[in-house]
């Protein structure tokens, strides 16, 4: 490895872990996704009377002590607990053992957009009701965004590069892409990468709801997230974590790792346009997709599947659809697109990582996940969104799009591993 040129370093996915509203662990998650199962339900853990959107894709059965001792769990916010759980699952899936021999070559890169919002809310309430001297001394390390990566590093023993990116809903994808580049340039051999978020809290829900960004189809929770449908009325908040184990190919082969697929490209672009909206021509998203394909020397007509950002908001779905049509031209009609947010909701910084898992499994299993609740397709969204039912199809190349508030665009590229 020492004498290899940087552009010769191939990066493969050898393990994955997820904690989502539709399943914890790859098997349960994938079965739910290809079955079109929704994880959305009415919020009952706090008062939503004055919040217009009263539904979310909540993880109801999560017990952090399954993955860590009670003392450690008590000192972590929910978003960090999710990240640790997904990391443990991903490492188990990969078969990778972190030891004194490789610990310095294994890094962690996990993004979060909001961090420990629940901890901040809870401790602020204590501050107001009981006084400053009753605020937890752990509030700062519980709420800061880097603690998902830090806690994953501590619990796994990974001592290579450890970092965090906070680019809103693009953070999970940015983390995977940055981890990919870290391995390519030789700064690590293995990276634990992904995103984690737990923002289904009173202030999180109220803030997004008061932006009129979220669905108010409160009487039909499981039908509320409906990307590309003409009756969509906003996104549905989700929570969870997605983690990938990325490895330099030769190292993975040497240790006999199972390989899910290869990551070939990481596209980036900025909008320089608006705090929350995409520029309507989609030209910046087009540039992002093309940047990803260029890095892997992949032609437009080679792409089989695109996991869309597909938030179920009126503007985003149109702009992304226009961008895909503009980018792929005639090939757009041969391309399968879908938004798995229709099932697991919009998990903010975790979204891109969870959707990367779905894209990799599509490549591995030759199955396109569906977009559920697509009953009356918006005429301005004119692609094949794989409506309602998963589809068997050879998937050699898959892309995953993410866009974050502030104008952060990311496209990740995955392909079948060929030795």
Map the helices and strands.
Layout: E1 11-20, E2 23-24, H1 26-35, E3 41-42, E4 55-56, H2 70-74, H3 78-94, E5 106-111, H4 117-130, H5 139-143, H6 147-156, E6 162-163, H7 171-184, E7 190-197, H8 202-210, E8 240-248, H9 249-254, E9 261-270, H10 283-295, E10 305-307, H11 314-328, E11 336-338, H12 341-344, H13 351-365, E12 367-368, E13 391-392, E14 397-404, E15 408-415
Helix pairs in contact: 3-6, 7-13, 10-11
Round the mean pLDDT to the nearest integer and report it: 96
Strand elements, count: 15
- The poorly predicted ranges are 1-6
Shape: globular
Per CATH, the superfamily of the largest domain is: Thiolase/Chalcone synthase
**C-alpha termini separation:** 17 Å
- Give the biggest sheet: 11 strands, mixed
Report the CATH topology name of the largest domain.
Peroxisomal Thiolase, Chain A, domain 1
Percent of sequence in beta strands: 15-25%
Helical content stands at 25-40%
Total tally of structural domains: 2
- H/I helix tally: 13
Please, could you describe this protein's structure?
The chain is globular, with a radius of gyration of 20 Å. The strands form 3 sheets. Strands 1, 2, 5, 6, 7, 8, 9, 10, 11, 14 and 15 form an 11-stranded mixed sheet that branches. Strand 14 (about 395-405) and strand 15 form a beta hairpin. The chain has about 425 residues and is α/β, with parallel strands linked by helices. The chain is built from 13 helices and 15 strands. Helix 3 (about 80-95) crosses helix 6 and helix 7 crosses helix 13. The chain has helices spanning about 25-35, 70-75, 80-95, 115-130, 140-145, 145-155, 170-185, 200-210, 250-255, 285-295, 315-330, 340-345, 350-365, and strands at about 10-20, 25, 40, 55, 105-110, 160-165, 190-195, 240-250, 260-270, 305, 335-340, 365-370, 390, 395-405, 410-415. The protein has 2 domains: about 10-255, 3-Layer(aba) Sandwich (Peroxisomal Thiolase, Chain A, domain 1); about 265-415, 3-Layer(aba) Sandwich (Peroxisomal Thiolase, Chain A, domain 1). The protein starts with 10 loop residues before the first strand and ends with a strand.
